[in-house]
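User: Good morning. I'm curious how guanosine-5',3'-tetraphosphate would be positioned relative to this chain. Could you predict the structure with it bound?
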Amino acid sequence: MLEYKNEIKRRRTFAIISHPDAGKTTLTEKLLLFGGAINLAGSVKGRKTEKHAVSDWMEIEKKRGISVTSSVMQFNYKDYCINILDTPGHQDFSEDTYRTLMAADSAVMVIDASKGVENQTIKLFKVCVMRNIPIFTFINKLDREAKDTFELLDEIESVLGIRTCPINWPIGSGKNFKGIYNRNSKRITRFYAANNGQKALESVEVELGDAQVDTLIGKDNHDILSEEIELLDGASSDFDLDLVLNGELTPVFFGSALTNFGVETFLKNFLSMTTSPLPRESSEGKIDPINNEFSAFVFKIQANMNKAHRDRIAFIRLCSGKFTAGMEVNHVQGNKKIRLAQPQQLMAQERKIVEEAYAGDIIGVFDPGIFSIGDTLCMPDQKFTYAGIPTFSPEHFAKVRQVDTMKRKQFLKGISQIAQEGAIQIFQEYNTGMEEIIVGVVGVLQFDVLKYRLEYEYGVEVLLDMLPYEYIRWVENKNIDVNTLSVSSDTKKVKDLKGNPLLLFVHRWSIQTALDRNKDLKLSEFGR
Ligand code: G4P
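Assistant: Good morning! Here's the predicted structure, ligand included:
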Protein backbone atom coordinates (compact mmCIF):
# COMPACT_ATOMS: atom_id res chain seq x y z
CA MET A 1 0.00 0.00 0.00
CA LEU A 2 2.92 2.26 0.65
CA GLU A 3 3.64 2.46 -3.03
CA TYR A 4 0.47 4.44 -3.62
CA LYS A 5 0.42 6.30 -0.33
CA ASN A 6 2.10 9.29 -1.93
CA GLU A 7 -0.30 9.29 -4.85
CA ILE A 8 -3.24 9.55 -2.44
CA LYS A 9 -1.50 12.10 -0.24
CA ARG A 10 -1.11 14.49 -3.15
CA ARG A 11 -4.77 14.34 -4.22
CA ARG A 12 -7.12 17.29 -3.67
CA THR A 13 -10.69 16.78 -4.83
CA PHE A 14 -13.03 19.74 -4.70
CA ALA A 15 -16.06 21.32 -6.28
CA ILE A 16 -16.53 24.94 -7.24
CA ILE A 17 -19.96 26.31 -6.41
CA SER A 18 -21.52 29.62 -7.33
CA HIS A 19 -24.61 31.36 -8.53
CA PRO A 20 -24.59 31.61 -12.35
CA ASP A 21 -22.34 34.40 -13.62
CA ALA A 22 -20.30 34.83 -10.47
CA GLY A 23 -17.25 33.55 -12.36
CA LYS A 24 -17.02 29.81 -11.70
CA THR A 25 -16.04 28.99 -15.30
CA THR A 26 -13.50 31.79 -15.42
CA LEU A 27 -11.90 30.73 -12.15
CA THR A 28 -11.82 27.07 -13.20
CA GLU A 29 -10.15 28.08 -16.43
CA LYS A 30 -7.50 30.07 -14.63
CA LEU A 31 -6.80 27.17 -12.28
CA LEU A 32 -6.41 24.86 -15.26
CA LEU A 33 -4.04 27.33 -16.83
CA PHE A 34 -1.81 27.23 -13.75
CA GLY A 35 -1.77 23.48 -13.97
CA GLY A 36 -0.90 23.59 -17.66
CA ALA A 37 -3.96 21.41 -18.36
CA ILE A 38 -5.03 23.92 -20.98
CA ASN A 39 -2.87 26.50 -22.63
CA LEU A 40 -5.34 29.05 -23.79
CA ALA A 41 -7.84 31.05 -21.80
CA GLY A 42 -11.28 30.46 -23.23
CA SER A 43 -10.76 26.74 -23.65
CA VAL A 44 -13.34 25.79 -21.07
CA LYS A 45 -15.92 26.50 -23.64
CA GLY A 46 -19.55 26.54 -24.29
CA ARG A 47 -19.95 29.48 -22.01
CA LYS A 48 -21.85 31.83 -24.23
CA THR A 49 -24.05 29.14 -25.73
CA GLU A 50 -24.61 27.59 -22.35
CA LYS A 51 -25.70 30.80 -20.79
CA HIS A 52 -27.99 32.11 -23.45
CA ALA A 53 -29.49 28.72 -23.92
CA VAL A 54 -33.13 28.46 -24.69
CA SER A 55 -34.81 25.31 -23.60
CA ASP A 56 -34.91 23.52 -26.89
CA TRP A 57 -33.36 20.13 -27.31
CA MET A 58 -30.35 21.19 -29.30
CA GLU A 59 -29.30 23.30 -26.40
CA ILE A 60 -30.00 20.59 -23.88
CA GLU A 61 -27.96 18.21 -25.96
CA LYS A 62 -25.14 20.67 -26.10
CA LYS A 63 -25.35 21.30 -22.43
CA ARG A 64 -25.28 17.63 -21.61
CA GLY A 65 -22.28 17.35 -23.87
CA ILE A 66 -20.65 20.14 -21.97
CA SER A 67 -21.52 18.80 -18.57
CA VAL A 68 -20.22 15.40 -19.57
CA THR A 69 -16.89 16.53 -20.91
CA SER A 70 -16.32 18.89 -18.04
CA SER A 71 -17.61 16.67 -15.26
CA VAL A 72 -14.20 16.31 -13.71
CA MET A 73 -11.00 18.02 -14.58
CA GLN A 74 -7.74 16.63 -13.35
CA PHE A 75 -4.44 18.42 -13.44
CA ASN A 76 -1.14 18.65 -11.61
CA TYR A 77 0.06 21.79 -9.90
CA LYS A 78 3.41 21.68 -8.11
CA ASP A 79 3.29 18.39 -6.20
CA TYR A 80 -0.46 18.21 -6.08
CA CYS A 81 -2.84 16.24 -8.23
CA ILE A 82 -6.06 18.21 -8.40
CA ASN A 83 -9.54 16.98 -9.29
CA ILE A 84 -12.06 19.76 -9.89
CA LEU A 85 -15.63 18.58 -9.95
CA ASP A 86 -17.88 20.64 -12.13
CA THR A 87 -21.24 21.45 -10.62
CA PRO A 88 -23.64 22.30 -13.43
CA GLY A 89 -24.97 25.61 -12.30
CA HIS A 90 -27.05 27.18 -15.00
CA GLN A 91 -30.57 26.40 -16.10
CA ASP A 92 -29.70 22.73 -16.01
CA PHE A 93 -29.33 22.99 -12.26
CA SER A 94 -30.35 19.58 -11.09
CA GLU A 95 -29.90 16.98 -8.40
CA ASP A 96 -26.62 16.10 -10.09
CA THR A 97 -25.31 19.41 -8.92
CA TYR A 98 -26.02 18.42 -5.33
CA ARG A 99 -24.76 14.87 -5.76
CA THR A 100 -21.47 16.10 -7.13
CA LEU A 101 -20.88 17.73 -3.78
CA MET A 102 -21.14 14.29 -2.19
CA ALA A 103 -18.03 13.30 -4.11
CA ALA A 104 -15.99 16.38 -3.17
CA ASP A 105 -13.71 16.72 -0.16
CA SER A 106 -14.04 20.49 -0.05
CA ALA A 107 -15.81 23.29 -1.88
CA VAL A 108 -14.81 26.64 -3.28
CA MET A 109 -17.60 29.18 -3.19
CA VAL A 110 -17.28 31.94 -5.78
CA ILE A 111 -19.15 35.13 -4.94
CA ASP A 112 -19.62 38.15 -7.18
CA ALA A 113 -18.37 41.12 -5.13
CA SER A 114 -21.09 43.38 -6.48
CA LYS A 115 -23.92 40.95 -5.76
CA GLY A 116 -22.98 39.17 -2.56
CA VAL A 117 -24.62 35.91 -1.55
CA GLU A 118 -27.14 34.83 -4.20
CA ASN A 119 -29.91 32.29 -4.32
CA GLN A 120 -28.18 29.30 -5.85
CA THR A 121 -25.14 29.74 -3.65
CA ILE A 122 -27.39 29.39 -0.61
CA LYS A 123 -28.82 26.09 -1.86
CA LEU A 124 -25.45 24.60 -2.70
CA PHE A 125 -23.94 25.87 0.49
CA LYS A 126 -26.57 24.02 2.53
CA VAL A 127 -25.47 20.74 0.99
CA CYS A 128 -21.83 21.47 1.85
CA VAL A 129 -22.83 22.23 5.42
CA MET A 130 -24.79 18.98 5.63
CA ARG A 131 -21.55 17.17 4.85
CA ASN A 132 -19.35 19.36 7.06
CA ILE A 133 -16.83 19.79 4.29
CA PRO A 134 -14.41 22.71 4.32
CA ILE A 135 -15.66 25.71 2.33
CA PHE A 136 -13.33 28.31 0.87
CA THR A 137 -14.64 31.62 -0.39
CA PHE A 138 -13.31 33.48 -3.40
CA ILE A 139 -14.87 36.92 -3.72
CA ASN A 140 -14.57 37.72 -7.40
CA LYS A 141 -14.79 40.67 -9.78
CA LEU A 142 -13.03 43.23 -7.60
CA ASP A 143 -12.07 44.98 -10.83
CA ARG A 144 -15.74 46.04 -10.93
CA GLU A 145 -17.58 48.19 -8.40
CA ALA A 146 -18.04 46.02 -5.34
CA LYS A 147 -20.15 46.06 -2.21
CA ASP A 148 -18.46 47.20 0.97
CA THR A 149 -16.09 44.42 2.08
CA PHE A 150 -17.38 44.27 5.66
CA GLU A 151 -20.92 44.13 4.33
CA LEU A 152 -19.99 41.17 2.12
CA LEU A 153 -18.50 39.31 5.06
CA ASP A 154 -21.53 40.10 7.22
CA GLU A 155 -23.76 38.75 4.51
CA ILE A 156 -21.85 35.47 4.33
CA GLU A 157 -22.00 35.16 8.09
CA SER A 158 -25.66 36.03 8.52
CA VAL A 159 -27.19 34.49 5.39
CA LEU A 160 -25.06 31.37 5.28
CA GLY A 161 -24.34 31.07 8.98
CA ILE A 162 -20.62 30.40 8.71
CA ARG A 163 -17.84 32.39 10.31
CA THR A 164 -15.41 34.14 7.97
CA CYS A 165 -11.70 34.70 8.14
CA PRO A 166 -10.30 36.95 5.41
CA ILE A 167 -6.83 35.77 4.43
CA ASN A 168 -6.34 38.85 2.31
CA TRP A 169 -8.18 42.13 1.86
CA PRO A 170 -9.06 44.20 -1.22
CA ILE A 171 -7.86 47.74 -1.68
CA GLY A 172 -10.69 49.59 -3.39
CA SER A 173 -12.74 48.15 -6.20
CA GLY A 174 -13.75 48.91 -9.78
CA LYS A 175 -11.77 51.78 -11.28
CA ASN A 176 -10.15 52.33 -7.91
CA PHE A 177 -9.10 48.71 -7.43
CA LYS A 178 -5.50 48.93 -6.31
CA GLY A 179 -4.73 45.44 -5.21
CA ILE A 180 -4.80 43.10 -2.28
CA TYR A 181 -3.32 43.22 1.18
CA ASN A 182 -2.14 39.91 2.54
CA ARG A 183 -2.87 39.81 6.26
CA ASN A 184 -0.35 37.13 6.99
CA SER A 185 2.70 38.46 5.19
CA LYS A 186 1.44 42.05 5.68
CA ARG A 187 2.31 42.82 2.09
CA ILE A 188 0.49 44.46 -0.74
CA THR A 189 0.17 43.05 -4.21
CA ARG A 190 -0.62 45.85 -6.58
CA PHE A 191 -3.19 45.51 -9.32
CA TYR A 192 -2.46 47.29 -12.57
CA ALA A 193 -5.37 47.57 -14.91
CA ALA A 194 -4.40 47.58 -18.54
CA ASN A 195 -6.30 46.99 -21.76
CA ASN A 196 -9.49 48.35 -20.21
CA GLY A 197 -9.05 46.28 -17.12
CA GLN A 198 -8.89 43.06 -19.05
CA LYS A 199 -5.28 42.22 -18.35
CA ALA A 200 -3.28 42.87 -15.22
CA LEU A 201 -0.58 40.40 -14.59
CA GLU A 202 1.99 42.71 -13.06
CA SER A 203 2.33 42.75 -9.31
CA VAL A 204 4.69 44.46 -6.89
CA GLU A 205 5.10 43.70 -3.24
CA VAL A 206 5.67 46.30 -0.52
CA GLU A 207 5.40 46.38 3.28
CA LEU A 208 2.26 48.08 4.60
CA GLY A 209 3.10 51.24 6.59
CA ASP A 210 6.04 51.88 4.32
CA ALA A 211 6.20 55.42 2.92
CA GLN A 212 6.16 53.88 -0.53
CA VAL A 213 2.64 52.66 0.06
CA ASP A 214 1.25 56.18 -0.39
CA THR A 215 2.83 56.33 -3.80
CA LEU A 216 1.78 52.85 -4.60
CA ILE A 217 -1.93 52.96 -3.81
CA GLY A 218 -2.49 56.64 -2.97
CA LYS A 219 -2.69 58.22 0.46
CA ASP A 220 -6.48 57.94 0.74
CA ASN A 221 -6.45 54.26 -0.06
CA HIS A 222 -3.59 53.71 2.35
CA ASP A 223 -5.55 55.44 5.14
CA ILE A 224 -8.70 53.48 4.45
CA LEU A 225 -6.77 50.22 4.30
CA SER A 226 -5.03 50.89 7.63
CA GLU A 227 -8.38 51.68 9.24
CA GLU A 228 -10.06 48.61 7.78
CA ILE A 229 -7.26 46.28 8.80
CA GLU A 230 -7.31 47.62 12.33
CA LEU A 231 -11.05 47.08 12.50
CA LEU A 232 -10.72 43.67 10.96
CA ASP A 233 -7.97 42.52 13.32
CA GLY A 234 -10.19 43.45 16.23
CA ALA A 235 -13.41 41.99 14.91
CA SER A 236 -12.85 38.98 12.67
CA SER A 237 -12.48 35.36 13.71
CA ASP A 238 -8.91 34.11 14.08
CA PHE A 239 -7.74 31.60 11.58
CA ASP A 240 -8.25 28.11 12.97
CA LEU A 241 -7.55 25.22 10.63
CA ASP A 242 -9.62 22.78 12.68
CA LEU A 243 -12.69 24.99 12.34
CA VAL A 244 -12.01 25.29 8.60
CA LEU A 245 -11.72 21.53 8.20
CA ASN A 246 -14.96 21.13 10.13
CA GLY A 247 -16.79 23.51 7.84
CA GLU A 248 -17.40 26.07 10.60
CA LEU A 249 -15.08 28.80 9.36
CA THR A 250 -14.50 29.85 5.76
CA PRO A 251 -11.18 31.39 4.72
CA VAL A 252 -11.99 34.31 2.41
CA PHE A 253 -9.90 35.43 -0.56
CA PHE A 254 -10.40 38.37 -2.89
CA GLY A 255 -9.50 38.74 -6.51
CA SER A 256 -10.50 39.05 -10.10
CA ALA A 257 -10.61 35.77 -11.96
CA LEU A 258 -10.94 37.46 -15.33
CA THR A 259 -7.69 39.35 -14.92
CA ASN A 260 -6.10 36.42 -13.10
CA PHE A 261 -5.51 38.58 -10.07
CA GLY A 262 -5.40 36.84 -6.69
CA VAL A 263 -6.02 33.46 -8.27
CA GLU A 264 -2.64 31.84 -7.69
CA THR A 265 -2.45 33.19 -4.13
CA PHE A 266 -5.82 31.64 -3.58
CA LEU A 267 -4.79 28.32 -5.10
CA LYS A 268 -1.60 28.04 -3.03
CA ASN A 269 -3.35 28.82 0.23
CA PHE A 270 -6.27 26.61 -0.61
CA LEU A 271 -4.00 23.65 -1.33
CA SER A 272 -2.05 24.09 1.86
CA MET A 273 -5.21 24.36 3.96
CA THR A 274 -7.06 21.39 2.50
CA THR A 275 -6.28 17.75 3.09
CA SER A 276 -5.92 14.69 0.91
CA PRO A 277 -8.95 12.35 0.99
CA LEU A 278 -9.99 11.57 4.54
CA PRO A 279 -11.50 8.36 5.94
CA ARG A 280 -15.17 7.88 5.01
CA GLU A 281 -17.95 6.41 7.09
CA SER A 282 -19.16 2.97 5.98
CA SER A 283 -21.29 0.13 7.33
CA GLU A 284 -18.09 -1.26 8.84
CA GLY A 285 -16.80 1.94 10.37
CA LYS A 286 -14.41 4.44 8.87
CA ILE A 287 -12.51 3.36 5.78
CA ASP A 288 -9.06 4.86 5.63
CA PRO A 289 -8.08 5.84 2.08
CA ILE A 290 -4.49 4.70 2.39
CA ASN A 291 -4.68 1.58 4.54
CA ASN A 292 -7.41 -0.07 2.52
CA GLU A 293 -7.58 -1.51 -0.92
CA PHE A 294 -9.88 -0.21 -3.63
CA SER A 295 -13.34 1.06 -2.70
CA ALA A 296 -15.61 3.59 -4.35
CA PHE A 297 -19.21 4.74 -4.66
CA VAL A 298 -21.40 5.80 -7.57
CA PHE A 299 -22.51 9.42 -7.36
CA LYS A 300 -23.78 10.15 -10.83
CA ILE A 301 -25.16 8.23 -13.79
CA GLN A 302 -25.24 9.71 -17.24
CA ALA A 303 -27.35 7.87 -19.74
CA ASN A 304 -27.38 7.67 -23.50
CA MET A 305 -24.18 9.54 -24.07
CA ASN A 306 -23.98 7.71 -27.32
CA LYS A 307 -27.46 7.36 -28.81
CA ALA A 308 -26.53 4.44 -31.05
CA HIS A 309 -25.64 2.31 -28.06
CA ARG A 310 -27.99 3.44 -25.33
CA ASP A 311 -24.98 3.45 -23.06
CA ARG A 312 -24.80 4.66 -19.54
CA ILE A 313 -21.75 5.85 -17.69
CA ALA A 314 -21.54 5.63 -13.93
CA PHE A 315 -19.27 8.16 -12.28
CA ILE A 316 -17.51 6.74 -9.30
CA ARG A 317 -15.52 8.43 -6.61
CA LEU A 318 -12.63 6.38 -5.34
CA CYS A 319 -12.52 6.45 -1.55
CA SER A 320 -9.60 4.16 -0.81
CA GLY A 321 -6.73 2.35 -2.43
CA LYS A 322 -5.91 2.04 -6.08
CA PHE A 323 -7.91 1.15 -9.14
CA THR A 324 -6.29 -0.76 -11.97
CA ALA A 325 -7.98 -1.23 -15.33
CA GLY A 326 -9.61 -4.63 -15.66
CA MET A 327 -9.67 -5.36 -11.95
CA GLU A 328 -12.48 -7.41 -10.48
CA VAL A 329 -14.59 -5.70 -7.84
CA ASN A 330 -17.60 -6.47 -5.72
CA HIS A 331 -20.72 -4.47 -6.57
CA VAL A 332 -22.15 -4.69 -3.09
CA GLN A 333 -25.78 -3.67 -3.77
CA GLY A 334 -25.93 -5.98 -6.80
CA ASN A 335 -24.20 -8.73 -4.78
CA LYS A 336 -22.08 -9.53 -7.79
CA LYS A 337 -18.43 -9.62 -8.79
CA ILE A 338 -17.86 -7.54 -11.88
CA ARG A 339 -15.09 -6.12 -13.96
CA LEU A 340 -15.30 -2.38 -14.43
CA ALA A 341 -15.33 -1.83 -18.15
CA GLN A 342 -14.02 1.10 -20.15
CA PRO A 343 -12.78 3.14 -17.23
CA GLN A 344 -12.29 6.70 -18.35
CA GLN A 345 -11.16 9.94 -16.95
CA LEU A 346 -11.88 13.41 -18.15
CA MET A 347 -8.99 15.73 -18.57
CA ALA A 348 -10.24 19.21 -19.42
CA GLN A 349 -12.03 18.51 -22.71
CA GLU A 350 -10.56 15.13 -23.45
CA ARG A 351 -11.75 11.74 -22.41
CA LYS A 352 -9.07 9.14 -21.98
CA ILE A 353 -8.98 5.55 -20.85
CA VAL A 354 -7.41 5.23 -17.43
CA GLU A 355 -5.02 2.48 -16.49
CA GLU A 356 -4.95 3.38 -12.84
CA ALA A 357 -6.55 5.79 -10.41
CA TYR A 358 -6.29 6.47 -6.69
CA ALA A 359 -8.47 7.43 -3.75
CA GLY A 360 -9.71 10.95 -4.43
CA ASP A 361 -10.03 10.41 -8.17
CA ILE A 362 -13.24 10.26 -10.14
CA ILE A 363 -13.61 7.86 -13.04
CA GLY A 364 -16.44 7.03 -15.36
CA VAL A 365 -17.19 3.35 -16.00
CA PHE A 366 -19.51 1.68 -18.48
CA ASP A 367 -22.82 0.84 -16.81
CA PRO A 368 -24.80 -1.99 -18.40
CA GLY A 369 -27.78 -0.83 -16.33
CA ILE A 370 -26.78 -2.34 -13.01
CA PHE A 371 -25.77 0.64 -10.96
CA SER A 372 -27.85 2.98 -8.87
CA ILE A 373 -26.74 6.22 -7.35
CA GLY A 374 -25.05 5.62 -4.00
CA ASP A 375 -23.93 2.02 -4.77
CA THR A 376 -20.65 0.84 -3.27
CA LEU A 377 -17.84 -0.99 -5.07
CA CYS A 378 -15.06 -2.70 -3.14
CA MET A 379 -12.65 -5.61 -3.33
CA PRO A 380 -14.18 -9.04 -4.14
CA ASP A 381 -13.63 -10.30 -0.59
CA GLN A 382 -15.29 -7.29 1.05
CA LYS A 383 -18.88 -6.13 1.27
CA PHE A 384 -19.19 -2.95 3.25
CA THR A 385 -21.32 -0.06 2.00
CA TYR A 386 -20.77 3.66 2.11
CA ALA A 387 -23.61 5.79 3.45
CA GLY A 388 -26.13 6.33 0.64
CA ILE A 389 -26.61 9.61 -1.15
CA PRO A 390 -29.70 11.43 0.08
CA THR A 391 -32.52 12.31 -2.25
CA PHE A 392 -32.65 16.06 -2.50
CA SER A 393 -35.87 17.99 -2.38
CA PRO A 394 -37.29 18.77 -5.81
CA GLU A 395 -38.62 22.29 -6.12
CA HIS A 396 -40.81 22.01 -9.21
CA PHE A 397 -43.59 19.53 -9.78
CA ALA A 398 -45.70 18.48 -12.73
CA LYS A 399 -48.23 15.82 -13.54
CA VAL A 400 -47.22 13.72 -16.56
CA ARG A 401 -49.83 12.46 -19.01
CA GLN A 402 -49.31 10.28 -22.06
CA VAL A 403 -50.74 11.45 -25.34
CA ASP A 404 -51.16 7.91 -26.64
CA THR A 405 -52.48 5.71 -23.83
CA MET A 406 -51.61 2.59 -25.81
CA LYS A 407 -47.96 3.16 -25.06
CA ARG A 408 -48.35 2.57 -21.37
CA LYS A 409 -45.54 0.05 -21.10
CA GLN A 410 -42.93 2.15 -22.84
CA PHE A 411 -44.01 5.15 -20.81
CA LEU A 412 -43.56 3.36 -17.49
CA LYS A 413 -40.27 1.85 -18.57
CA GLY A 414 -38.92 5.20 -19.76
CA ILE A 415 -40.00 7.23 -16.80
CA SER A 416 -38.79 4.62 -14.31
CA GLN A 417 -35.39 4.36 -15.98
CA ILE A 418 -34.96 8.09 -16.09
CA ALA A 419 -35.96 8.28 -12.43
CA GLN A 420 -33.53 5.48 -11.59
CA GLU A 421 -30.71 7.47 -13.13
CA GLY A 422 -31.68 10.20 -10.72
CA ALA A 423 -32.52 12.80 -13.35
CA ILE A 424 -36.04 13.19 -11.99
CA GLN A 425 -38.02 11.93 -9.03
CA ILE A 426 -41.40 10.34 -9.45
CA PHE A 427 -44.26 10.23 -7.02
CA GLN A 428 -47.63 8.62 -6.92
CA GLU A 429 -50.78 9.72 -5.23
CA TYR A 430 -52.30 7.33 -2.78
CA ASN A 431 -55.20 5.24 -4.05
CA THR A 432 -54.35 5.70 -7.72
CA GLY A 433 -52.35 3.43 -9.96
CA MET A 434 -49.42 4.48 -12.11
CA GLU A 435 -51.87 6.45 -14.31
CA GLU A 436 -51.17 9.57 -12.33
CA ILE A 437 -47.50 10.22 -12.07
CA ILE A 438 -46.14 13.31 -10.43
CA VAL A 439 -42.64 14.30 -11.41
CA GLY A 440 -40.42 16.43 -9.21
CA VAL A 441 -37.24 18.14 -10.36
CA VAL A 442 -34.66 20.45 -8.87
CA GLY A 443 -34.24 22.61 -11.98
CA VAL A 444 -37.07 23.28 -14.46
CA LEU A 445 -34.92 22.39 -17.44
CA GLN A 446 -35.16 18.78 -16.30
CA PHE A 447 -38.79 18.81 -17.45
CA ASP A 448 -37.71 19.55 -21.01
CA VAL A 449 -35.05 16.87 -20.82
CA LEU A 450 -37.66 14.38 -19.59
CA LYS A 451 -40.12 15.26 -22.33
CA TYR A 452 -37.49 15.00 -25.01
CA ARG A 453 -35.99 11.78 -23.77
CA LEU A 454 -39.35 10.05 -23.41
CA GLU A 455 -40.19 10.99 -26.95
CA TYR A 456 -36.90 10.24 -28.67
CA GLU A 457 -35.52 7.43 -26.60
CA TYR A 458 -38.74 5.63 -25.70
CA GLY A 459 -41.13 6.80 -28.40
CA VAL A 460 -43.67 8.21 -25.96
CA GLU A 461 -45.15 11.65 -26.27
CA VAL A 462 -46.21 13.25 -22.99
CA LEU A 463 -47.89 16.39 -21.71
CA LEU A 464 -46.80 18.06 -18.53
CA ASP A 465 -49.24 19.94 -16.31
CA MET A 466 -47.38 22.16 -13.89
CA LEU A 467 -48.41 21.80 -10.26
CA PRO A 468 -48.21 24.61 -7.71
CA TYR A 469 -46.24 22.68 -5.06
CA GLU A 470 -42.92 24.12 -3.99
CA TYR A 471 -42.02 22.28 -0.84
CA ILE A 472 -41.63 18.61 -0.15
CA ARG A 473 -41.12 16.76 3.10
CA TRP A 474 -40.59 13.06 3.65
CA VAL A 475 -42.55 11.58 6.56
CA GLU A 476 -39.94 10.13 8.89
CA ASN A 477 -42.30 8.22 11.20
CA LYS A 478 -42.26 4.52 10.57
CA ASN A 479 -45.56 2.64 10.10
CA ILE A 480 -47.67 5.73 9.93
CA ASP A 481 -50.99 5.70 8.07
CA VAL A 482 -50.62 8.81 5.97
CA ASN A 483 -54.35 8.93 5.29
CA THR A 484 -54.96 9.73 8.95
CA LEU A 485 -52.75 12.82 8.92
CA SER A 486 -54.57 16.11 9.21
CA VAL A 487 -53.12 18.62 6.75
CA SER A 488 -54.21 21.90 5.15
CA SER A 489 -56.15 21.80 1.89
CA ASP A 490 -53.15 22.81 -0.23
CA THR A 491 -51.16 19.79 0.92
CA LYS A 492 -50.89 16.63 -1.14
CA LYS A 493 -50.07 13.17 0.21
CA VAL A 494 -47.92 11.08 -2.10
CA LYS A 495 -45.36 8.26 -2.01
CA ASP A 496 -42.01 7.91 -3.73
CA LEU A 497 -40.69 5.01 -5.84
CA LYS A 498 -39.69 3.07 -2.74
CA GLY A 499 -43.13 3.56 -1.20
CA ASN A 500 -41.94 6.15 1.34
CA PRO A 501 -44.73 8.59 2.26
CA LEU A 502 -44.28 12.29 1.77
CA LEU A 503 -46.16 15.54 1.66
CA LEU A 504 -46.16 18.25 -1.01
CA PHE A 505 -46.95 21.82 0.04
CA VAL A 506 -47.79 24.96 -1.89
CA HIS A 507 -46.90 27.28 0.97
CA ARG A 508 -44.13 27.05 3.47
CA TRP A 509 -46.47 27.77 6.36
CA SER A 510 -48.50 24.65 5.57
CA ILE A 511 -45.49 22.62 6.71
CA GLN A 512 -45.89 24.13 10.16
CA THR A 513 -49.64 23.50 10.03
CA ALA A 514 -49.00 19.82 9.40
CA LEU A 515 -46.57 19.67 12.31
CA ASP A 516 -48.96 21.56 14.61
CA ARG A 517 -51.94 19.38 13.80
CA ASN A 518 -50.11 16.06 14.08
CA LYS A 519 -48.26 15.91 17.35
CA ASP A 520 -45.61 13.26 16.71
CA LEU A 521 -45.14 13.90 13.03
CA LYS A 522 -41.48 14.04 11.94
CA LEU A 523 -40.68 15.57 8.55
CA SER A 524 -37.41 15.63 6.66
CA GLU A 525 -36.15 17.68 3.73
CA PHE A 526 -34.14 14.76 2.36
CA GLY A 527 -35.39 11.35 1.28
CA ARG A 528 -33.74 8.07 2.13
P1 G4P B 1 -20.20 31.27 -14.20
O1 G4P B 1 -19.41 30.12 -14.73
O2 G4P B 1 -20.16 31.38 -12.70
O3 G4P B 1 -21.58 31.36 -14.72
O4 G4P B 1 -19.50 32.62 -14.68
P2 G4P B 1 -18.45 32.89 -15.85
O5 G4P B 1 -17.10 32.44 -15.44
O6 G4P B 1 -19.00 32.41 -17.14
O7 G4P B 1 -18.45 34.48 -15.80
C1 G4P B 1 -19.61 35.25 -16.04
C2 G4P B 1 -19.21 36.57 -16.66
O8 G4P B 1 -18.45 37.31 -15.71
C3 G4P B 1 -18.36 36.44 -17.90
O9 G4P B 1 -18.62 37.56 -18.75
C4 G4P B 1 -16.96 36.59 -17.34
O10 G4P B 1 -16.03 37.05 -18.30
C5 G4P B 1 -17.20 37.64 -16.27
N1 G4P B 1 -16.18 37.58 -15.21
C6 G4P B 1 -15.72 36.50 -14.54
N2 G4P B 1 -14.79 36.87 -13.64
C7 G4P B 1 -14.66 38.20 -13.73
C8 G4P B 1 -13.85 39.17 -13.06
O11 G4P B 1 -13.05 38.87 -12.20
N3 G4P B 1 -14.04 40.47 -13.44
C9 G4P B 1 -14.92 40.85 -14.40
N4 G4P B 1 -15.00 42.15 -14.69
N5 G4P B 1 -15.69 39.96 -15.06
C10 G4P B 1 -15.56 38.66 -14.73
P3 G4P B 1 -19.53 37.46 -20.05
O12 G4P B 1 -19.33 38.74 -20.78
O13 G4P B 1 -20.91 37.11 -19.65
O14 G4P B 1 -18.97 36.23 -20.83
P4 G4P B 1 -17.63 36.14 -21.72
O15 G4P B 1 -17.91 36.87 -22.96
O16 G4P B 1 -16.51 36.73 -20.94
O17 G4P B 1 -17.48 34.66 -21.93
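The radius of gyration is 25 Å. The chain has three domains: 2-273, 280-378, 396-524.
Let me know if you'd like a different ligand tried.
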